[in-house]
Design goal:
Layout (H helix, E strand, L loop, with lengths): L12 E3 L5 E3 L9 E5 L6 H12 L1 H6 L3 E6 L3 H11 L4 E4 L4 H6 L3 E2 L3 E2 L2 E5 L5 E6 L6 H12 L1
Parallel strand pairs: 3-4, 4-5
Antiparallel strand pairs: 1-2, 3-8, 6-7, 8-9
Length: 150
Amino acid sequence: MAIAVGDVAPDFSLPAQDGSTVSLSDFRGQKPVVLYFYPKDDTPGCTIEACSFRDSYTAFQEAGAVVLGVSSDSVESHQRFAKKYNLPFQLLSDEGDRLRQSYGVPKTLFVIPGRVTYVIDKEGKVRHIFDSLLNAQAHIQESLNILRSL
């Protein structure tokens, strides 16, 4: 079952590339969260998306938001990807795709993990969902527009 706008976002605890464990509940009552699911580290579309989030990171900070990227890649893969592109936000390892499944992120052509971004407010409610595998850069502007309206 897919998560819809207005639903409470499912909590999670996943390992990040810096060795920490990140939980959605860490931010509840404090900051909105931009949770973006992407197919694979260091592939063309995912690199464009990650670097676009990086290039707009100051705007996300000004909006008071936390950016979290999620894929099924290992922590080690995330470490290499984050270092290579100087990514200032956490990449979470969802090996086994349990979080992806709990959010209902669809696969494209039944094979490619989807590219979906969730904007979650301070209270933990999903305020916006943007799903576009091919338009990776649009995820950033969509998220900022919603954050600015919260």
